[in-house]
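With this grant's support, the team has encoded backbone shapes as discrete tokens. A representative record is reproduced below.
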Amino acid sequence: MEWRGLPDPGPTADAVRLILGPEARDTMPLVPGIYGAVNYHFYPAFSDRCPYEPQVPADTLDPQWLDRQLENLDYMTALRDRYNPGAPIWLGETGSAACGGQVGYSDRHAATFFFLNQLGQLARRGVRVLVRQALEGGTYGLLEQGTLRPNPDYWAALLWRRLMGTEQLAPAAAGGAPDLRLFASCTPDRAGSVTLSRSTSRAPSGAWCVCAAGARGGHSCTWSPLPTSSRVACCSTVANWRHPTVWCQCCDR
């Protein structure tokens, strides 16, 4: 057992000690080559319900925040390659923030940018299973606790499931801006159809994103004026080139 990057809450009687272990790096060498899949859990941060670091940052569209999961995936991939080559990697539990989710973030559109980026990055890296915490419960539930009204991540999960397939493509992002994320795949059960997931945190000030799928399979995103009282900071779309479903979300900072 060991502490990993978490402060010791001290000797007080009412302190809650968070103990992690045993570590995969310790157990896998003892019993190598027996795993049907290598499963791990990941949360990018703690909510303010828990007194641990890191906490959800102020800028949840920062590329370093969006890419935080890749370090953990690299760690688990290295263990898999060393002790059980060829086994699939599963992300068996994940959400936008541990300890029930962050109020004002995990149940809002802002968290969906992390979720869509997570789905795209893991699919591109060959992760076959992602289990989202939770369907209902806490602030990070796909459904609002008590009312069962869908939160924004519910619609992201639904559209991803329906439109994004298992065969991943590699669309090129002009200019290579770190905040522009493009993911594409062959659409399930639709020969010749491609679905594109696109997000960026650099929308022009005073504009919002309008996306449309053309009648001949084209796809375009344009910026349209907003009232001067609004300023959009980001835009995310999931659009299918040969399917009528187009979804666009924007955040007003």
Observations:
- The chain has two domains: 1-163, 167-253.
